[in-house]
Q: What sequence folds into this?
């Protein structure tokens, strides 16, 4: 599996987790928590919007953490090419595992 397929796989996993979290937390909040707390309808809608925004921010942070290292390596390559240094990384082998691209000897 090459790096593009792995990045796409991680992105799809992030989207799936986002959908699962969103679909499990909002109905639970609407049906169980808010009626027990005695919150008015307008405040309930505001809380649902805030919960939705929190889920989006949480998912964005997770995706950025997961994909941050591969993007950093790509940016280093771009910087190296911008300085007209066309030599490959010396004595390093590319290895992709779990959360990042790691360069090791």
A:
């Amino acid at each position: 599996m090459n790096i593009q397929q792995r990045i796409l796989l991680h992105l799809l996993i992030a989207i799936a987790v986002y959908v699962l979290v969103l679909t499990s937390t909002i109905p639970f909040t609407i049906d169980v928590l808010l009626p027990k707390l005695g919150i008015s309808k307008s405040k309930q809608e505001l809380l649902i919007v805030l919960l939705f925004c929190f889920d989006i921010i949480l998912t964005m942070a997770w995706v950025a953490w997961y994909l941050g290292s591969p993007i950093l390596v790509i940016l280093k390559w771009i910087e190296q090419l911008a300085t007209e240094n066309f030599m490959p990384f010396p004595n390093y082998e590319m290895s992709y595992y779990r959360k990042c691209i790691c360069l090791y000897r």
The chain has one domain: 3-104.
